[in-house]
Amino acid sequence: MRQNIKVHHWYLYVGLIGLAVLLVGLGARVAASQTASCNKLNKLPSYFDKIICQHAISSIDNGRQIFRYDTFGDEAFWGGALGLHETIQGEQFGGIGPGLSPQAALELGLKVDVAALPRPLIKQLRNGQVDLTDPAVTLALLQLDAVVGVTGFFDDNEEDSLDAIGIHCAFCHSTVDDSLLPGIGHRLDGWPNRDLNVGAIIAFAPNLQPLADLLGVDVDTVEQVLLSWGPGKFDAELFLDGKAFRPDGGPAATLIPPAFGLAGVNLHTWTGWGSVTHWNAFVANLEMHGQGTFYDPRLDDAEKFPIAAANNFGHIHSDPDLITSKLADLHLYQLAIPAPKPPAGSFDEEAAARGEVLFTGKANCASCHVPPIFTEPGWNMHTPEEIGIDDFQANRSPDERYRTAPLKGLWAHTQGGFYHDGRFATLQDVINHYNTFFGLGLTQEEINDLVEYLKSL
Ligand code: HEC
Ligand code: HEC
Question: Fewer CB atoms inside 10 Å of the end CB: C or N, the chain?
Fold first, then answer.
């Protein structure tokens, strides 16, 4: 009898110890998986190497979170000033008008993150059992944090009623892989959302008066300008210089560029405004209307930037500052996003190999697009005359030049065309332009080979 009990105890102890080891092991695994690669550095002479590695991992994790979910307090603008949440929720939920159905939201290019959806909902969506014409579904998606780049702030008392709406970097610079349905899938950070009709989304807000006041025009004009942009475009300079249309009458908006493949590139934006982190501070403060600090005295030039100069946009101070403390992690995250590799079979490998020889040889592309970063190491800027195009957009920037666009991952943003305003519909059109302008004497076959090479980057 006694012995039996002892035996039982024995098993109990082993069982408990086993369980404890398992639990500790599980907990440790989560941390270990993050620092596994850092631990390899134990063999290196300096303890500081491991600190650098762990810092990089945690900084990128924070940066991802900021890029995807941080509004920097911009809901005070999109919700508070423009009232965008009112027309999104519609009269039915205490707002204005019919509301925004998921179908209409998807047509505006907004994307849904499948990873944020509960399993039953995924199943219903797959089986076509969700009413995509019902604005209540849009609110449910916002409540799940499933609309890419948008946060809905809900009323504490009335849970299904929106108080405000805010946007994130991911609004323009992420899309999804359409794995569930068109517009619904897994996030692809850094890929420009060329379906997103930013102008139409802003124009959906009930109160455009703050924008009209800033630009010194009436609300109808603001609406007309916003609706001129079309999908995949935004005009980051409009609220600096008030120029809404090009001399040829086309909209002054530019394409949303990729935010991948940027490491090693010196100047950013189509016209080389500054570094990634300069532009992040610029956008978070001046475009998203978050609350932070921004300094750029180049905006005091009243001739070039009359609106920015009059409003002191180069000298922003907000208290509290919800942006500055996030810049480092946000910067590192973007530099960590690689350009995506083209899918197998999406280009002709033999032609691409011939194209590569032309790129660095006869076509002389590599004199500016230096592999493997495909822009110039150093001051990567060119006058409009040097690339044979007009100076309109260049003149809207401090250096009055165009930045040599890094070319990796071109295949992932063919929609909307190429060059800052999408003036060239296809890669073939781009090369035709260079062929004529530089007098390269490329044959049609050589042009085709170059196109295949560009598709392979
Ligand atoms: C409303 C759409 C929109 C939002 C929101 C937005 N961007 Fe952009 N972003 C653009 C456009 C358009 C440009 C090109 C501007 C230009 O060249 O004048 C750009 C340019 C950039 C670039 C330069 C890329 C290159 O080609 O080198 C980076 C980096 C970037 N954005 C990061 C961010 C980050 C980080 C955030 C959030 C803080 C953000 N953007 C928010 C539309 C947006
Ligand atoms: C003198 C420097 C220079 C040379 C030479 C040059 N490029 Fe460019 N390239 C640029 C600049 C600057 C831009 C950005 C233009 C803009 O944004 O409007 C650009 C843009 C592009 C784009 C569009 C990228 C995008 O994201 O829209 C492609 C594609 C391209 N170049 C390919 C080539 C090829 C192929 C060659 C050789 C036939 C070539 N380039 C030669 C400077 C150059």
Answer: N
The region that residue 442 occupies, defined by phi over 0 for left and psi between -120 and 50 for alpha, beta otherwise, is beta
> Which residue's structure tokens are 């609220």?
239
Average pLDDT, the chain: 93
Cα 394 from Cα 382, distance rounded (Å): 9
Q: Is 430 in the pocket of ligand 2 (CB under 6 A)?
A: yes
Eight-state DSSP code of residue 257:
P
Residues whose CB is less than 8 angstroms from the CB of residue 186 and which lie 6 or more positions away in sequence, other chains included:
113, 114, 115, 176, 177, 179
Does this model's pTM top 0.85? My answer is yes
SS3 of 295-344: the string is ECHHHHCCCCCHHHHHCCCCEEECCCCCCHHHHHHHHHHHHHCCCCCCCC
pLDDT tens by residue, 1-38: 344 445 455 555 555 555 555 555 555 554 555 556 77
Give the ligand with the smallest distance to the CA of 258.
Answer: 1
| The pLDDT of residue 253 is above 70 | yes
Q: What is the pLDDT of residue 1?
A: 39
Q: What whole-number distance in Å separates Cα of residue 18 and Cα of residue 434?
A: 69
**Average pLDDT over every residue of 54-63:** 96
Give the pLDDT confidence score for residue 2 in this predicted structure.
Answer: 44
Arithmetic mean of pLDDT, 136-144: 97
CA torsion sign for 267, 431, 341, 354 is: negative
Task: Determine if ligand 2 sits within 6 Å of the CB of residue 418.
Answer: yes
Q: Which of 173, 304, 373, 404 to mutate to test the pocket of ligand 1 (most atoms within 8 A of CB)?
A: 173
- What is the C-alpha separation between 394 and 384, in angstroms, rounded? 7
- What pLDDT, in 10s, does the model give residues 396-420? 999 999 999 999 999 999 999 999 9
CA torsion sign for 112, 409, 288, 213 is negative
Q: Give, rounded to a whole angstrom, the gap between the first and last alpha carbons of the chain.
A: 76
Contact (CB, 8 A) for 146 and 112: yes
Specify the pLDDT at position 288.
Answer: 98
Sign of the CA dihedral with 244 first, then 247, 250, and 252 last: negative
